[in-house]
């Protein structure tokens, strides 16, 4: 195996024996094989679309599902990935036949267009189709940067799809891009494609924002309860709000409470979910604390997406894990997809919860969130006055991901040491590094404004563009906003590319720069976009706040 797609890549270069995330080498290889055949699908589907306007909803869904399944920490079920490879070959061959029928010209020189292995040949083939197949370090770096951006885009497209929102331009871009990178492209072409990926990243996040807010209303200022009640509960994690809705509806009146974990916390901010009296609040912290949080929770846990940490052999909660959608874990119960427009069936996890003890209380109190674009616009006068009077000197965007590395204490210390006239804008699970600190407010404006999940970084961009308009500036970079972003997995990559596309410069990315950036590609990002790493808290505050 060779994988360097996330921030925890072993030794800062790549995982080769086993993933730091827990992915085994054979699972990693099988995911490479899935991507290999999926790229073959994309070669055919893009040729059919370009030449005949062919659009196939099943293919669109299969491609974004497959990409999503391979992101960090989403799926640890090798049998499920292997079945998906078989299905990928079938889908590709269906497209091959369709292309022949319609007289479409397809360049099938990429082997993923033609390889026809039997399941017993998958293992051997899977070791030959990974990232290192591309020998030029810079080309590989750019192609993988683009791939990871597209994977993040696929995740967001899937959540939007689940809520009934689709954008065929996004599907066309994803498929064309996955097809294009099978060919020889120059560094310049790949740099251009990287920026275009950011453009479609913005479009996808806008789509998901529309899907979320149309279905559930605009997030509003909310005090989220951190304590527990005396009923058995279900803990729901991940990012999928459709799963959240259906779980809440199906648990109502059953005596089972619902709590959010990690990236599902922002579900508490949506008006549509507040009506459920058995929706208690948030339990625990960010994804990597799950081994402790799940022990004490006592009830079953539903993973709707990443980030899964495979449980230890002696974990008490092993048989309490359920997955759904792109998430998967060997030994866990997988709740199947919706069929024929019917909701998913959560009865098994609900019955399981009824047999469990209530959660142990691990903290009390509340945290405040819900500062997505509409809520911030509602406070715009207050915010603008505070900036004009100097009460707010600077906004620091500290969005992104949390992770296990010790060095991430930097973000807690950074938040603590920021001067009192600064406000943190956040989204994603990075916030758990400081969202329970008593950082106070500025004239009633909390010093940590949480917009929501990582995809709600889109909200932060919308807010920045609105402020640019209000202050009549020519350039988004003239705003008093600095960017100190923490990344972990591929959704953070699409957020980063989206910000670059919007023209944001001088983003600090930490705790380490991606292993998949070759020195030359990193140089391009530094020279053109001013991207930099982090150093130490005091110097970075001086640099970012002045
Ligand atoms: Fe956090 Fe994990 Fe949100 Fe990432 S819960 S690192 O998936 O997408 O952020
Ligand atoms: Fe390693 Fe990250 Fe890849 Fe997992 S996803 S194998 S931790 S680089």
From TrEMBL:
Pfam families: Prismane
Cofactor binding summary note: Binds 1 hybrid [4Fe-2O-2S] cluster.
Catalytic activity: A + NH4(+) + H2O = hydroxylamine + AH2 + H(+)
One biological process term in Gene Ontology: response to hydrogen peroxide
InterPro entries in the cross-refs: HCP/CODH, Hydroxylam_reduct, Prismane-like_a/b-sand, Prismane-like_sf, Prismane_a-bundle
Compartments where found: Cytoplasm
UniProt keyword GTP-binding present: no
Residues with PTM Cysteine persulfide: 401
Residues annotated to bind [4Fe-4S] cluster: 3, 6, 15, 21
Gene Ontology molecular function terms on file: 4 iron, 4 sulfur cluster binding; hydroxylamine reductase activity; metal ion binding; peroxidase activity
Residues binding hybrid [4Fe-2O-2S] cluster: 239, 263, 307, 401, 429, 454, 489, 491
One GO cellular component, as annotated: cytoplasm
Cofactor annotation: hybrid [4Fe-2O-2S] cluster; [4Fe-4S] cluster
Keyword terms, alphabetized: 4Fe-4S, Cytoplasm, Iron, Iron-sulfur, Metal-binding, Oxidoreductase
Keyword Metal-binding: yes
EC number: 1.7.99.1
Role according to the record: Catalyzes the reduction of hydroxylamine to form NH(3) and H(2)O.
Annotated family: Belongs to the HCP family.
Full protein name: Hydroxylamine reductase
Taxonomic placement: Bacteria, Pseudomonadati, Bacteroidota, Bacteroidia, Bacteroidales
